[in-house]
Amino acid sequence: MINLTDAELIKRAVQGDDAALTELVQHYLKPAYAFAYRYVRNRQDAEDITQEVFVKVWKNLKKFDASKPFHPWLYQITKNTCFDWLRKKSAVPFSELDKIKEIAADASPPPDVLADQSLLQDELTAAAERLAPKYAKVISLYHQQNLNFRQIAELLQEPLNTVKSRYRRALLLMKKMLKLN
Q: Pfam families annotated for this entry (predicted)?
């Protein structure tokens, strides 16, 4: 199937031509993976998302409007799948607030430092879990998923300044909670 356009490959794939579908997938596999990786920043997650994307493409190819370019449709599916993936992952409890609780670690810190770090981690986790969901979600996406504010705003469908305000407010609330302990 040399030099077939995306539209021709899609038409053949819809008609049941597995070779056309395989060629379409092979052509867009790396770009879809790279696109997913930019959102999740994890190789395994990006691979899983990419696989899920092409399953969705295969299931919905009959619905695709062949008069339009294929790649924007593919990237929209990839973006939505990434956001769904991140939503699922952000539902995980605050057991790993890595960026907030990071302390410059030596190769082998003394036991008292380890105890302090463990205590701090427990206190941060407890404080984060007591936040209102709108604040907790921003903290989780920023620190657990390593998303920037713009990505969080897009994911939550909130204005950028709202996300920044919630992040700052969450940090202030956590600081206040830690002072009370």
A: Sigma70_r2 (PF04542), Sigma70_r4_2 (PF08281)
Output the average pLDDT for the chain: 81
Q: Which CATH number fits domain 98-180: 3.90.1680.10, 1.10.10.10, 3.60.20.30, 3.50.50.60?
A: 1.10.10.10
C-alpha to C-alpha distance for 130 and 119, rounded to whole angstroms: 17
Give the C-alpha distances (Å, rounded to integers) separating 130 from 19, 52, 82: 53, 34, 27
What tens digit of pLDDT does each residue of 71-89 get? 889 988 998 898 888 878 7
pLDDT greater than 90 at residue 104? no
| C-alpha to C-alpha distances, 155 to 82, 83, 87, 145, nearest whole angstrom | 9, 6, 8, 12
Q: Count the Cβ atoms, other than its own, within 10 Å of residue 157.
A: 7
Eight-state DSSP code of residue 61: G
Please give the C-alpha separations between residue 159 and each of 9, 140, 150, 154, 155, in angstroms, as whole numbers.
39, 18, 9, 8, 10
pTM for the model: 0.54
